[in-house]
Design goal:
single chain; globular; 132 residues; 26% strand; 4-stranded mixed sheet; alpha+beta
Length: 132
C-alpha cells in the first residue's frame, strides 16, 4: 500500500510495525476512518483511498466525508480504478450519514474529479509546520 501512496507524496521509511500500529489505531475508530484498497491478481495494492468522517456542530450535528489519499499505480491508470475508488468511498460516506463529501486536489486532477461527479466549491488553504 505504501508503494501506491508514494505516487502522491513522500511517505517516509515506515516499518511494518509502525504501519500496523497506525492501521490498528485507525481501525479502532470504526465509524471514522474507512480505507479502501484494490489489489491485482498477485495481491499487490494497485489503488487506495480513504474517507474520514468528520462530526460537525452545523447542519444539525451533521457528518462530512473527507476523501483523502486517492492513488492508483501508474501501470493501472486508465482502467477506471480511481473512479471505482471514488464511487466506493462516496457510497460509504452516504451510508454512514454524511450530508456531503469533499476532497482537495491539484488543478491537473480537477477534470478527473469532475468526471466523478464533483465540482469546484472553494479554495484549499494550507499551513505547513516544520518538523522539530
Amino acid at each position: 500500500m505504501l508503494d501506491c501512496l508514494r505516487i502522491l507524496t513522500t511517505v517516509g521509511d515506515i516499518t511494518e510495525g509502525k504501519w500496523n500500529e497506525r492501521y490498528d489505531w485507525m481501525a479502532r475508530r470504526g465509524d471514522e476512518y474507512f480505507v479502501c484498497v484494490i489489489e491485482d491478481a498477485g495481491k499487490r495494492v494497485v489503488g487506495t483511498g480513504c474517507v474520514v468522517v468528520e462530526r460537525k456542530f452545523i447542519h444539525n450535528l451533521g457528518l462530512v466525508g473527507h476523501i483523502e489519499d486517492i492513488a492508483v499505480a501508474p501501470d493501472q491508470q486508465g482502467k477506471k480504478l480511481g473512479l471505482r475508488l471514488i464511487q466506493t468511498l462516496d457510497h460509504i460516506a452516504q451510508k454512514v450519514g454524511c450530508y456531503k463529501t469533499i476532497l482537495d486536489c491539484s488543478d491537473t486532477n480537477e477534470g478527473f474529479y469532475v468526471k466523478c461527479g464533483y465540482k469546484r466549491a472553494g479554495l484549499e488553504m494550507a499551513h505547513y509546520y516544520e518538523k522539530k
